[in-house]
Amino acid sequence: MSWRGPVGPASLLVWGVDPCSCVHVIPFKPSQPVWATDDSGHGQDPHLTDVALLVLAREVIDRLSLIAQHSSLIPHSQEIEGFGIALVEPSPEEAKLILLRAHANGATHKELCLDYLCTAARLLGEWWDHDIIDFFEMTLATGRLLHFLRDLRDILPEKPVHNGHEALIVTVPKEQHTLGACIAAELLRREGWSIDLKLGLNEDEICKIAHRGAYPIIGLSASGTRLIPELARTVVGLRVAAPHAQIFVSGHIVEMEPDIATRIGADASGTDIDDCLKALDALARKLRVVVPIR
Q: Per-residue pLDDT averaged across 166-194, rounded?
């Protein structure tokens, strides 16, 4: 198998995310594994068809590749090729070590996301198009990219929040059913949550609002599996635009695909309102809340 593949030019930053200035290594730890298949090569219960998995993987790769077109600092192409090969190896450890070494050498969170993960995704897409990698390798690598996008936030400086019970709730792009999100937002407000509700936005609009608002929690509402591509693309964009945020998935899609949050690299999910409240409270407890001095 030949692993030579072209790496096109890239430049940095889509939504104006500020670089992280810290360069000490905080080993990001796998909290919960992420699959398109999974990050260890073993797969999981096949709720999604191979076609659906491939669509999911391709959407993630395309979204990351689009972001890579806006980057300006690219590691040597051999380094990216080595990272791409590591992403399809049986173990994810070598890929993780490459990122840790780059961070130890001064790469910021933004550079790791855009110059490594996004550029590698672009390369993987080219390998797939030229039949250099197969279906399993494509979906395996996609799962690992989602995994790293989520867990790389461990290298960011801790960001205190003034209200842990604050969230942005949005419907995913192309979602036509908005009643559930509206009801959930109102019920959460009655429980003392500060909620911003946005409906009918595209991925870029969601990411811009999330970046400007610095929300500690972002809830994505989707009514069915037909929206998995849009959901996955939005999660990928949010991991770059709002890396501190905890991402929550709700709606009928969770009933249809109970492990959807794991597949797309979100932090938690819920079905009914009680389930959502418990999950959101758990996310809020993870946050470092600063009480203002009166």
A: 92
